[in-house]
Amino acid sequence: MKKIMTIFKKELIDSIRDRRTLITMVVVPLLLFPILIGISSKIMISQARKAREKTLRIGLMTYNNAREFRESLLGREDVAVIDHIDAELGQQLIKKDSLDAFILFEKDFDKRVGDMLTGRITLYFKATEEREIEKRRVLTLLNDFERELRSSRFDKLNLDLSIIETIDVDEQNLATPKERLAEVIGGFLPYLFIIFCFMGAMYPAIDLAAGEKERGTLETLLTSPVGRFQILLGKFGVVVLTGILSAAISMLGMYVGIRQVKEIPPELLNMILSILEFDSIILLISLLLPLTIFFAAILLSLSFFAKSFKEAQSIISPMMIVVIIPAFIGLMPGIRLTPTTALIPVLNVSLATKGIIADTIVPGMLIEVYLSLIVYAALSIVVCSKIFTREGTIFRF
């Protein structure tokens, strides 16, 4: 054990001296979340404010119907009405972003409404995410107009509006705040943590294997009175440590980033910060640990096989896609932790993390995830040790 620790300290010092390792392990995860959260929140809040405060440009063709509605629009300061344009021109202006919406009344709208029939209104708009607030504002105007017409019709018939309310549905959402929050960010966070684990382990693995081969220091290390497996464990420990630290620092970066956004409502802020409770963090790290061991063994194996640092980068870089795909699948709605998905590496961590965040993780499923990760980690270490003991691989130049 003493010899392993000596190798571990030596490799750790070498890794800390490497700028690329420090950047990927500390700088990127620590700064990325505050920058992303800060910029995205400011942009979203600014865009939403602009959409709510902007003057809506509404094209209108009433064919002399619905005069009350037209006059109500003309009397609003937050609406600019472009009146008496036909459907073809209105659609063209919508497509060119010259109008936010175009409202077309059927020619006999007033007659049909007067005859107690349904009057048809066609609303043209562009359904894009950035126009969603403008669309809701226009629909609110039309809904208010509809309520006025309905009230007027019922007054003529001497009826109470409540006559159409045959049932009253009282919706009670029993999902806890953490469960609702987990649906929104529960898949995204483990996705980032897994990526940081992989990135944090990648550069040390390349440097401690292919990098040492290229520098010619690996042969010197092999001549020391230390067994190869002990040397491997020393290097292995450094790679695992940097991967876990990268994920842990990313959690710290997320905490700092959330804290700096003053516009977040206190209730939502408390819910988000509850994810970063001590118990949750320990569970998350305990899940990431065997996964990082799995990553470390694969990365070291590929790095030992490479002839140079550059070749190792070209071999390992595509591995990022292999990691991203199952992590991305965990973001998809409807994907749940089952006895099958609990056996798929990376995906099982993503889904288990989502369950931990929502406080809905089933202990049996969590145990299966742990067992599968431990098995994968053990197998990957065995494969890595076999590769490291092969002379043809180590001295492949």
Q: How does this structure look, described?
A:
With about 400 residues, the protein is mostly helical. It has two domains: about 1-40 and about 175-395, no CATH class; about 55-160, abc type-2 transporter like domain (abc type-2 transporter like fold, 3-Layer(aba) Sandwich), CATH 3.40.1710.10. It is built from 17 helices and four strands. The chain has helices at about 1-15, 20-55, 65-75, 85-95, 110-115, 130-155, 175-185, 190-215, 220, 230-260, 265-275, 280-305, 310-315, 320-330, 345-360, 365-390, 390-395; strands at about 55-60, 80-85, 100-105, 120-125. The protein has a four-stranded mixed β-sheet, with helices on both faces. α3 (about 65-75) links the parallel β1 and β2 (about 80-85). α1 crosses α10 (about 230-260) and α12 (about 280-305) packs antiparallel against α15 (about 345-360).
Structural class designation? mainly alpha
Largest sheet: 4 strands, mixed
* Beta-strand content estimate: 5-15%
**Low-confidence runs:** none
Q: Cα distance, first to last residue?
A: 31 Å
Number of strands: 4
The helicity comes to 55-70%
Note the topology.
Blueprint: H1 2-17, H2 19-53, E1 56-61, H3 67-74, E2 79-83, H4 87-95, E3 101-105, H5 109-114, E4 121-124, H6 132-156, H7 177-185, H8 188-215, H9 218-222, H10 228-259, H11 266-275, H12 278-305, H13 309-316, H14 319-329, H15 347-358, H16 363-388, H17 391-394
Parallel strand pairs: 1-2, 1-3
Antiparallel strand pairs: 3-4
